[in-house]
Amino acid sequence: RLPPILKQFSRLYPQVKLDIQFIDSEMAFDLVMHGKLEVGIVTLPPDQDLTLKTIPIWEDPLAFMVAVDHPLAAATDIDIQSLAQHPAILPSMSTFTRRIVESLFQERTLNIEVPISTNYLETIKMMASIGLGWTVLPATMLDSEVVELPIRDVSLNRHLGVVYHPGHSLSNAAKAILDLLEAPGI
């Protein structure tokens, strides 16, 4: 979704040199908070930070996944309690995505065992694909190496969007990228 926006921005503003850093959303939030970064395109936190301005741009459906040969892979209807009986592979506790997953289990007073944790989504998927546990990843990552688990009465999404500090001045370039991101049809 982002590449066409960056392409359009580069065409409209060829004189602007893009400075793109691929960092964790949580780090981007911190950099925006402290004025070290003007704008971040991030996973939005599940709880609103009133200090920073966030604008949801895209909804990113999440899917429960396991290896094709995992004991749960053939199940057609799984409840969240059954899932909690198996080890999970998730991002670290500091991530917004992990907080979304943890919240789901805490609401049901369930604990999950997470023996493997990393913030690299491809590594998480690879670990799940070899049968080391279940995971929750963006649904766009589903492929022949993993299968989606049909978890009864559960639908998870995260929101991707823009964050900036309303108390800090934005450059013309930052304002322009915000305008493109907020344009209808994005």
CATH topology of the largest domain: D-Maltodextrin-Binding Protein, domain 2
Give the overall shape: elongated
The tally of beta strands, per DSSP, is 7
What's the gyration radius in Å? 19 Å
Quaternary arrangement of the chains shown?
A: single chain
| Biggest β-sheet strands, sense, barrel | 5 strands, antiparallel
Named CATH architecture of the largest domain: 3-Layer(aba) Sandwich
CATH class of the largest domain: Alpha Beta
Low-confidence parts, pLDDT < 50 over ≥5 residues?
Answer: none
Terminal-residue CA separation = 8 Å
Task: Give the total of domains.
Answer: 2
Q: Strand content of the residues, in percent? A: 15-25%
Order of SSEs: HHEEHEHEHEEEH
CATH superfamily of the largest domain: Periplasmic binding protein-like II
Indicate the percent of residues in helices: 25-40%
Structural class: alpha+beta
The helix count comes to 6
Average pLDDT rating: 93
Characterization of this structure:
This protein is an alpha+beta fold. The chain folds into 2 domains: 2-58 and 159-182, Periplasmic binding protein-like II (D-Maltodextrin-Binding Protein, domain 2); 60-157, Periplasmic binding protein-like II (D-Maltodextrin-Binding Protein, domain 2, 3-Layer(aba) Sandwich), CATH 3.40.190.10. The chain has helices spanning 2-12, 25-33, 80-83, 96-107, 121-129, 172-182; strands at 39-43, 53-67, 89-90, 116-117, 135-138, 146-148, 156-164. The strands form 2 sheets. Strands 1, 2, 5, 6 and 7 form a 5-stranded antiparallel beta sheet that branches. A two-stranded parallel sheet has the order 3-4.
